[in-house]
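Escalated from tier 1: calcium ion holo job.
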Amino acid sequence: MKWSRVLAVLCATAGTAAADEIIVPNAAATTAGSGGYSTLLRSAARSYQLVVGSGELGALPQGSRITGITWRRPTWQVHAAWPGVGFSCVFANYDITLSTSSREPGNLSTTYTDNIGPDAVLVRSGPMTFADAFFPGGALTPATNDFGEIVPFTTPYVYQGGTLLLTVRHDGNNCGGSGSLDTVSSAQCQAIGVSSYTQPDQWYAQGPIVMRLTFEAPAPCDPDVNCDGAVNGFDIQATEEAVNGDFSNFCQPSADLNGDGTENGFDIEAEEQRVNGAPC
Ligand SMILES: [Ca+2]
Ligand SMILES: [Ca+2]
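Tier 2 regenerated the structure:
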């Protein structure tokens, strides 16, 4: 293997975005809840919204791509795994939207559409199957249950700082069973919901259901995008090529240099500015 090839491999490995996780509320990582809500796994239609203040999102770097979500069973009493080995619960429509929130925690509108910020992304929609021990059970407070399997997003949401708003709407499941999930309070979190898949108004208070988000942090900023040890016009050229699909001279995992979720001319512009001395 040529040395240049070794360098390229090392560079690529170092820059690969590893999946990371954040538990919200943060305290839930070490604190079991004292209750549970079945809104998200209810047999009948339900909708749910949770706003999270930036104070709970310190471990979610700006520019992170959120790629999945999961929750966990409560522990105020022992709950079995849900839906249980040999069982399967299918929701025909299980729609999850992430966005910023136009309202701070404590100030959500009871009309859920008023709370959704302009950057909303429908991160998944359509049928969702929960089968076997999707959400493990068996633990009792002060222990916590393991989080469930990850519900993957088909379109990631890029977090750009500030509040985060989760909106989940489903039309019920085919198994007739509801599964409750752990709740832990935080002054930075407020949840509301409604007993419908479609009703926009008159949402009422809910407990903040503990969630764990899976995300890919943005690659550390290094303007030497072709990994030749220098920062110059060749890096701009390599960025242009990468934006056009040719990554042969580009050693970072993504050409989304400005972290807006797409690879385009703005990333070439960002690289030009960095080569000319702009801070990363
Ligand atoms: Ca370079
Ligand atoms: Ca970009």
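The chain has two domains: 3-16+219-275, 19-216.
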